[in-house]
Amino acid sequence: MRCLIIRIARAEKTALLARLKFTQILACLLLFAATPTLSQQSDSTGFVNLRDLKTPARTDIVAELYQQECAVCHGETLRGGAQGTPLVGQDLQHGNAIIDIARNSSEGFPDTGMPAWSPVLSEDQIWALALYISEQRQGTNLDDFRYNAPLVVPEGVIKSERHDFTIETVIQDLDPLPFSIEPLPDGRILLSEKRRGISVISQTGIQSDLISGTPAAFADSFDFVGQPMGLGWMMEVALHPEYESNGWIYLHFGDRCSNCNEMSSASGQPVSMNKVVRGQIENDIWVNEETIWESPKETYTLMPEIAVGGRITFDDQGYIYFGVGMKGPLEHIGVQDLKLPYGKIMRLHDDGTIPLDNPFVEVPNAVQAIWSYGHRNPQGLEYSVERRQLWSSEMGPRGGDEINLIWPGLNYGWPLISRGVNYDGTPIRFGEILGIKFDPADMIQPIVDLTPAPAVSSFIFYQGDMFPEWNDSIIVGTLRASDLLRIVVEDGEVIQQEVLLEDIARFRDIEVGPDGAIYILLEHDSGGQIIRLTSVSGRALAN
Q1: Phi, psi for residue 35 in degrees, rounded to 5
Q2: What is the pairing mode between strands 189-193 and 178-183?
Q3: Is 510 helix (H, G, I), strand (E, B) or coil?
Q4: Which residues pair with 421 in a beta bridge?
Q5: Contact present, 274 and 324 (Cβ < 8 Å)
Q6: Among 77, 104, 290, 542, which is most exposed with the fewest C-beta within 10 angstroms?
Q7: Helix 61-69 vs helix 123-138: angle between axes, to the nearest 10 degrees?
Q8: Is the separation of the CB atoms in 452 and 140 below 8 Å?
Q9: pTM of the model
Q10: What are 150-208's pLDDT values in tens digits?
């Protein structure tokens, strides 16, 4: 990525930023903030602070290309025109897949009056248009994050392929940016809110005061290109598998500090990095805290915690796994570097010690906790005891959302390969920037490819008595698409997929309660919510 540094007026700067892809904006501005000689050219104060820019949501350059080249035939809203058929709301005659749309656009159908676009547009432009059309068919837009979309929880019985179920609202009016829920054995629920900390939801749906003494959560978030950003957020709260006997609760959060490294001192701004601790709650107080994992202060950065992973899971052999996402100074920096923690899934003993069989313990200077690498933004992380497998859900850029089976020591590709593209429609070519020569065949491909990207979020492998016909199904939420999906995978292939809930809200977290009910954490500007899915009959229904 090239970052052009020029002296421009603030109004012109805002207009320019609106046309750049999101990660390009962040990369350039964070570079300004971290480098005094460059930052002097960025504004009168000497540093760019994202909080001060108030930059609006970016313009979709690919949508503009569609309006320029395609709308005259297929309509401005893709619903058809005088010369062309609708591209949304119905099956396409020559195939619905992105590859079909791209091929058909490139080759055309001269006999029916559709020209071939390959002489006019580049292969990359045609692919970007095909992805845009697929996004519109899915109902997602680049500039709509669904934070304030109408939120209506369905009433009555909801039918699905295997079970009918109902939805009950457990609690409303939470902070708009919650992150994690963890059902307790007694029916209460631990809750983490990014900007507030940890609280407990009672069996009757009453939120407690914040648990005192936990690591700090910082509330000074800000909006940037339509997304809330921040440093020092609280993320996952998770129970030790033997919680009822040892009381251990684990927290994954953004550890924030000021003037603690060169980047912070040069920019005059705080920096942060993922950190994992454990402790216990006694009389509503966090006690007996122990550090499970932290990174050297030199790795703390200005990158906001919008794509840092933050999840935790445990296996049945005494190991903890957690994901660190896009936290480097630039989106592509360090993900392929074993000396840095960015873009990695980590594995430790549950007390934080390094397992001797971790794949890189004998590699000089490598982060010894690394289990796998090449991850962009692992939004979900689950260990399936029944399968004895570790899985992750991961956000790509524009397209390329994935659900992956995680193997030790293997490379999952980012930022060298992706089934998505940059937000401006250009292909992913960070290998050229990094000077890394690679063979895509050496990198692990996803089991579930979610392109166009719904903004995949947290997930579970369901196991419980409430929905027996869903056992071993993946129940996964989405943010931008606002859907809840059920996916069945056998022998590395998706054999079934259905939408359980459609166009509801941003699904932030999913967990299973002691009785097998499914608890879901919703994120919304009007206030977060926890809802509970229960089976109408508690048994499988006839198909």
Answers
A1: -125, 105
A2: antiparallel
A3: strand
A4: 398
A5: yes
A6: 542
A7: 100
A8: yes
A9: 0.90
A10: 999 999 999 999 999 999 999 999 999 999 999 999 999 999 999 999 999 999 999 99
